[in-house]
Amino acid sequence: MSSLSQAxxxxxxxxxxxxLMNQPDxxxxxxxxxxxxxxxxxALTAPNExxxxxxxxxxxxxxxxxxxxQQPIPDIRQMTFPI
Length: 83
Known about the structure:
Elements lengths: L2 H9 L3 H7 L4 H9 L3 H6 L5 H21 L14
């Protein structure tokens, strides 16, 4: 098992928690993937395992960076109170 596979096994229980906090839509995810570095998108299909792992990590970092930059969308069901 590669180091990337081991890491994904360790954090997989936390993925649903992340999605529940603020669900990204498929358009946002598609745009995040398209704005990732081109070498990483192409290298996912490379025959070299090390290159594929580096590409996957780069794509993951790109998506997480886009996640951090997105503006929070207020939930209209949430009551707001003045401070």
